[in-house]
Amino acid sequence: MKRARQKPVVENEAPQTSQKSKKQKTGLYGSVLGGSALHSSLDWGSLPHHVILHVFQFLPLVDRARASSVCRRWNEVFHIPDLWRRFEFELNQPATSYLKSTHPDLIQQIIKRHADHLQYVSFKVDSSTESAEAACDILSQLVNCSIKTLGLISTAKPSFMNVSKAHFASALTVVFVNSKSLSSIKVDDTPLDDPSLKVLVANNSDTLKLLKMSSCPHVSPAGILCVADQCHGLKELALNYYILSDELLLALSSEKHVDLEHLRIDVVSENPGQVQFHTIKKQSWDALLRHSPKVSIVMYFFLYEEEFDAFFREETPVTHLYFGRAVSKAMLGRIGLHCPRLVELVVCANGLQPLDEELLRIAQRCKHLTAMGLGECEVTCRGFLEFVKMCGGRLTQLSIMEEVLIPDSDYTLDRLRLEVSQHLGRMWFPDMMPTW
Hints:
It is found in: Cytoplasm; Nucleus. By secondary structure, this protein is an alpha/beta fold. The chain has 17 helices and 14 strands. The strands form 2 sheets. A 12-stranded parallel β-sheet has the order 1-2-3-4-5-6-7-8-9-10-11-13. It has a two-stranded parallel sheet with strand order 12-14. The longest helix has 31 residues, at 2-32.
């Protein structure tokens, strides 16, 4: 009789264990659904549209397409216009990549149905010509598009530069002609040329606000002047120094232009030791400042020491300076003398000579400096503390590698850290070099 009475107990325990397990597994879905029935939350097809839409936004195109075949509800979400407003085409070349696994018919289907929904589009390619050509092929199909921002991103060179200029220009022209409302374009390291810029301006002059086109060797100063003359709403411009000229700065300073807010200039040595860089006149910089007094001028330097001669010989209104290679003490001394608008300075390398004098001059003359970064340099602890004292609480960012600081008889690193923290009004620690 005991066995007969115990048997139903065993039978009842199994469903209880199963129900408990079910609650544990579905607790997350229950919270997502705002307390809906646990049983219904087990059904993926019952997830609200906004939850499915959020999940889909993180999926590459191939996975989106596969997910859309799960059920009718998911297929409906797959075709919601909001899903396609912001999209990145990731075009890499590994065996399991997008290029290998995506059938061209799928891309054509998406473009046919959702091209007019695409607004914020980017293409990420690797170093292979195949991936760049795939991006051009897709661009060529965007006939019924209304793109607002377009980015062509190369994770490694040469990618787009290996594509024929005619093919690239033809693909880009399709977007320039059909969008009519482009406001932001990033086409660094591409064979963009002057005729393409003229097409861009002819169709999007009223809407273009940001143009980033560093390392575009087929663009001439005349092409940029065309943009400066006709795109009166231009707010941000990024280009290589070899395109920058007195004439261009004067064009950007004319009365018919609105204030330029951000000018980025990449100073890159294409032929190490052989490049002769021109000098921009102080009068041209002054004209730009009179017209756009709040403009941020950002300069990235990737030069060798002997190539800096043309820069900062007289006052330059640069606000942000980044040195990706070694820069001499003499060059840093010039910055302290001739860059009164400097807000941020990053020096990746200098050498083994302490920069105390140069830093103190920068602190004294650059009254707007709020951010400093030092990598492979040397500064005495006493000199660094004096620099911090002179800058005071306005230093909102201070990134100094521990190896940069040279302890002396008066200051250990621990004492320096405490005193710097006191002058900054917050806890400060030098950055540690990663050991992995």
